[in-house]
From TrEMBL:
InterPro entries per record: DYW_dom, E_motif, PPR_At4g14850-like_plant, PPR_rpt, TPR-like_helical_dom_sf
GO BP annotations listed: RNA modification
Organism domain of life: Eukaryota
DYW domain sequence ranges: 600-692
Keyword vocabulary terms for this entry: Repeat, Transit peptide
Protein name: DYW domain-containing protein
Keyword Membrane: no
An example Gene Ontology molecular-function term: RNA binding
PPR repeat spans: 79-113, 283-317, 384-418
Tagged with keyword Transit peptide: yes
Length: 692
């Protein structure tokens, strides 16, 4: 091409329009701005109208709202194409107000919306609050212009809008009036029913589609699997899996992802893994689905292994992936793993994402790192209900009821987030663990009036625990008797635990008998009753309970404590002699015992639940699994590093008292996570303030 031809070529409007379209296709703001600059340099001030429409479409598609609005304002003669491009881009990027404002401006100019404008306007209306009632107004316009109910494209958009804004009756009426129900219309019914937690409606719509002679597509298949997952219809989903294979949909990555999710939610991890392993192509959703499936089935180690596999395969961390893996760290109580993932989130610039940040708050709270949770929480630019619940729960786990209530009050004062059923369970639990009996009981009594939440069995279990810990077992029993629903296992378990704590053996027997009826194979309830009787010195009755357990084949779960050092988990049981460092551990315990006795410690032998001589009892309590784990930690873990111990049962009162002494004597932070909560021992004190 000659130099003269090269100078003329860029002036061709068609070539300039192609340059703008190329920037849209490549999603490159830099190329788009360069193309815009060339348009201004070559064609201004007489820019053709179709070029103006291309520029509006460019900035709208690239989610540059300021530039898109400026381009629309600069168009001297905007057409329906210009406005539709702007409305479509704003709606697609979750900006309903600018989209609907432009729609209104278009009508004021006398421009007639077309069959592309109305679907975009309906999409924007779907993001508005239901009370705004914008959607029905657009519906009336579409009727007036003749697009409803005959135009399937516009009808499906209106249908989706009504479902998403909660106007179910209007949605069903519109669906019934549609003369041409294509697969998109049926899919709108199916997918929205799944999202709203109405799986049966999804299944009914699927069978309606088939009866009408409609053909399935990928969206239909995914919606059906999601409905089966939501309703836990394993058999139906398995049959549908066969149909999917017969129709050839199993090679689609979205369908395979939905099958992994379905089998995971139905607790068929072998089949979920088989689908995952058989996928020829995987995307980020595939890896995340497998991670979540394992996490939902309490297989946290496998979930973390899948995450590592995703990274090795070159998959970049996404907000959903990181937030999913963080839940596994909370399940594993893997604080170090969680911190490593936090670093990954920071490097990937997704740590400020609300889902990732909420998962971080939850992980730190469940792993006992409440200070780290506070830091993440305080730096979040926005918070949702999950965030607030996670922070309140973090304080509840360590028994800091005052701070839990302070965060709860802050959430209420913000006016942006209303507490839900789970929030109130967490707050009541915090009050129970922190000894705020009056505050917790008042919340329980007023929750329906203040927040519109009807008390459920979980709330009753919390209030029974709350009153029981405060020594008001009879009052707790009265509340149980007045429950509008059948008392659950946690309700009776809370009462039994309180009776054991305060020596109310007769009421404890009533609670235990109820528990034996509800769950006869749970060894924990039998053991708790036996221990309660033994604590009261009623050895014969305690022995009878143990004999009954043996006769019916109920085995007591042994108490275990474990501690991690150099990526190796060391597990201890009471009176354990198998550990390779047994001699060093016993020597460390003997030294600690002398130091503690010199500081005024006396063993609490009521927690040696055998009819033994006093000296034997002292030896018995000093061989509890958590003390063995602590001695190992003191030997191996360098000074200055907190010692973290996990226990599968509740820590006993003697170990709790001993750990307070040891924390002061050796000057170490000791953190114990038992089956109920965290205990942070430091300078002769515990974070629970002896209320646990």
């Amino acid at each position: 091409m000659s130099r003269a031809a090269a100078a003329v070529a860029p002036a061709d409007p068609q070539l300039l329009a192609a340059a703008v379209e190329s920037a849209i296709t490549s999603r490159s703001p830099r190329l788009g701005r360069a193309a815009h600059a060339r348009v201004l340099r070559v064609l201004a001030p007489a820019i053709p109208q179709f070029i103006c429409a291309h520029l509006i479409n460019l900035y709208s598609k690239l989610d540059l709202p300021g530039a898109a609005a400026a381009a629309l304002a600069a168009d001297p003669h905007p057409t329906v194409v210009s406005y539709t491009a702007f409305i479509s881009g704003a709606a697609q990027h979750g900006r309903p107000v600018p989209a609907l404002t432009a729609f209104a401006g278009m009508l004021r100019l006398g421009l007639r919306p077309n069959d592309f404008t109305f679907p975009s306007a309906f999409k924007a209306a779907a993001s508005m609050p239901a009370r705004a009632f914008v959607g029905p107004q657009i519906h009336s316009l579409a009727l007036r212009f003749g697009y409803l109910p005959d135009d399937a494209f516009v009808s499906c958009a209106a249908l989706d809008m009504y479902f998403k804004t909660g106007h179910l009756a209007l949605a069903r009426r519109l669906f019934d009036e549609m003369p041409n129900r294509n697969v998109v219309a049926w899919n709108a019914v199916m997918t929205n029913a799944v999202l709203d937690g109405r799986p049966m409606e999804t299944l009914e719509a699927y069978f309606g589609l088939r009866e009408a002679g409609g053909m399935l597509n990928v969206v239909s298949v995914c919606a059906f699997f999601n409905a089966c997952a939501g309703a836990a219809y394993l058999s139906l989903g398995e049959q549908f899996h066969g149909l999917v294979v017969k129709c050839g949909f199993q090679t689609d990555v979205s369908v395979s992802n939905s099958m992994v999710d379905f089998y995971g939610k139905c607790r068929c991890m072998g089949k979920a893994r088989a689908v995952f392993d058989g996928m020829g192509v995987r995307n980020s959703v595939s890896w995340c689905s497998m991670i979540v499936a394992y996490a939902q089935n309490k297989a946290e180690e496998e979930a973390f292994t899948v995450y590592l596999g995703a990274r090795r395969s070159g998959e970049e961390p996404t907000d959903f992936m990181i937030s999913s893996v963080l839940t596994t760290c909370a399940g594993l109580l893997g604080l170090d793993l969680g911190r490593a993932l936090h670093a990954v989130a920071v490097r990937s610039c997704i740590d400020a994402n609300i889902f990732v940040a909420s998962a971080l708050v939850d992980m730190y709270g469940k792993c006992g790192g409440v200070e780290d949770a506070e830091l993440v929480f305080s730096e979040m630019p926005q918070r949702n209900l999950v965030t607030w619940n996670a922070m309140i729960g973090g304080y509840a786990h360590v028994g800091d009821a005052r701070n839990a209530l302070a965060i709860f009050d802050e959430m209420i004062r913000s006016g942006k987030t209303a507490p839900n059923y789970i929030t109130l369970v967490i707050v009541l639990s915090a009050c129970s663990r922190g000894g705020l009996t009056a505050e917790g009981y008042e919340l329980f009594e007023t929750m329906k009036e203040r927040f519109g939440v009807e008390p459920g069995t979980e709330h009753y279990a919390c209030v029974v625990d709350l009153l029981g810990r405060a020594g008001m077992e009879e009052r707790a029993y009265e509340i149980i008797q007045r429950m509008p629903m059948r008392p659950s296992i946690p309700v009776w378990g809370a009462l039994l635990g309180a009776c054991k704590m305060h020596g109310k053996t007769e009421l404890g027997r009533i609670a235990a008998e109820k528990l034996f009826e509800l769950d006869p194979q749970d060894s924990g309830n039998h053991v708790l009753l036996s221990n309660m009787l033994a604590s009261a010195g009623r050895w014969a009755e305690a022995t009878d309970v143990r004999k009954e357990m043996k006769n019916v084949g109920i085995k007591k779960e042994p108490g275990r404590s474990w501690i991690t050092w150099k990526n190796v988990v060391h597990v201890f049981q009471a009176k354990d002699t198998k550990h390779e460092m047994h001699n060093e551990i016993q020597a460390e315990l003997a030294k600690l015992k002398r130091q503690m006795q010199a500081a005024g410690y006396m063993p609490d032998t009521q927690y040696s639940l055998y009819d033994l001589e006093e000296e034997e009892k002292e030896s018995e309590v000093f061989q509890h699994s958590e003390k063995l784990a602590l001695a190992f930690g003191l030997i191996c873990i360098p000074p200055g590093v907190p010692i973290r111990i996990m226990k599968n049962l509740r820590i006993c009162a003697d170990c709790h008292r001993a750990f307070k002494f040891i924390s002061g004597i050796v000057g170490r932070d000791i953190i114990v996570r038992d089956n109920n909560r965290f205990h942070h021992f430091r300078h002769y004190e515990c974070s629970c303030r002896d209320y646990w």
